[in-house]
Write a structure and sequence with these properties.
- The chain is α+β, with helices and mostly antiparallel strands and about 325 residues long.
- It folds into three domains: about 190 residues, Regulatory protein AraC (Jelly Rolls), CATH 2.60.120; about 50 residues; about 60 residues, Arc Repressor Mutant, subunit A.
- It is built from 13 helices and ten strands.
- The strands form two sheets. The chain has a six-stranded antiparallel sheet with strand order 1-2-9-4-7-10. A four-stranded antiparallel sheet has the order 3-8-5-6.
- A hairpin with a 2-residue loop joins β5 and β6.
- The two termini are about 25 Å apart.
Length: about 325
């Protein structure tokens, strides 16, 4: 994913091979364009609802992705989790069920057919509350434990998405109707072919839920030396079981996950608070400036100071 990948437009494929999706997809595009005045990601007045618009393929973007449902109206995107590639477009949606360090790149976008996407954030408590009403969710044949998966976009899901989006036109209805619309979207996702994987995160005392608690602990203590035994005690697992299930869910070891958190936060400090590289490294837990510079370069493709300088040059251009 070091180079921008270009693919033929998928929009005509969706409309030609899945005519039942053509009308809702077209409305989805129109509504996203109305609420995206320029390039980038835009937050709406509905809590947790975001729209994105790009008119050309994007650069690689590394981030810790929060739990969310991502639906593309037009264009396509690649997301990497460790060395695993997830490709999604107007026919496939992406679900991230817990905080995961990922690398994303929009690969299909143009001024004539911009990349347009919908993102709805959620948390495990909302899924747990819904499951109390839905009951147990049937598991799939392939019992992957990954905290990220793709699902096939269908008309029922798009209809629910559009009901939520239409509330932006009637803001007085949002307090009452938005929770209901969001619940329907999550219900459609939970009942999808891979929805059981989302349900695992909200199942009391499941291995997936324990890993979610381990992730929360790591996020709260990322700048401290990692003591795996302490994390294991916090989530009531043996150290070997924690390692095994953590990697099954996140594709990373706890140490690799902590390193991603540290480096992502260091980059935020460099770009938004304008601290120097040594200060950023120290604040996220690195004792060795050379180790920090080496690991930062490996992840972001340039040493901290050079990366910071390029960022400032882009802002002033």
């Amino acid at each position: 994913m070091n180079n921008i990948l270009r693919m033929p437009s998928s929009s005509h494929i969706v409309d030609a091979e899945h005519p039942e999706l053509a009308a809702p997809r077209a409305e989805l595009c129109r509504r996203i364009e109305r609420h995206t005045p320029g390039e980038g990601l835009f937050e709406t007045v509905l809590p947790g609802l975001f729209f994105a618009r790009l008119t050309k393929p994007g650069d690689l973007n590394r981030a810790v992705h929060s739990p969310a449902l991502c639906v593309i109206a037009q264009g396509s995107k690649h997301v990497m989790l460790a060395d695993e590639l997830y490709v999604y477009d107007a026919l496939r949606y992406l679900v991230v069920s817990l905080d995961l360090p990922v690398c994303g790149q929009v690969v299909e976008a143009s001024p004539e057919a911009p990349y347009l996407s919908f993102r709805l954030d959620f948390d495990a408590a909302e899924i747990a509350e819904l499951m109390l009403r839905v009951g147990p969710v049937e598991t799939g044949v392939q019992r992957s434990a990954r905290g990220m998966f793709l699902g096939r976009t269908n008309g029922s899901l798009l209809d629910a998405v559009l009901r939520l989006m239409r509330l932006l036109d009637t803001p007085d209805d949002i307090p009452v109707l938005a929770p209901l619309a969001k619940q329907e979207i999550l219900y459609r996702t939970l009942k999808g072919e891979q929805g059981w994987r989302l349900g695992q995160i909200a199942t009391a005392d499941s291995q997936a839920q324990r890993i979610a608690r381990a992730i929360a602990w790591l996020k709260a203590h990322y700048a401290e030396p990692l003591r795996i035994e302490e994390v294991a005690r916090e989530v009531h697992m043996s150290t070997s079981s924690l390692h095994h299930h953590f990697k099954a869910v996140t594709a990373l070891s706890p140490l690799q996950y902590q390193k991603q958190l540290r480096l992502q936060e260091a980059r935020r400090l460099l770009m938004s608070e304008a601290v120097d590289a040594a200060t950023a490294g120290h604040r996220v837990g690195y004792e060795s400036p050379s180790q920090f510079s080496r690991e930062y370069s490996r992840l972001f493709g340039a040493p901290p100071a050079r990366d910071q300088r390029r960022f400032r040059e882009r802002l002033s251009a």
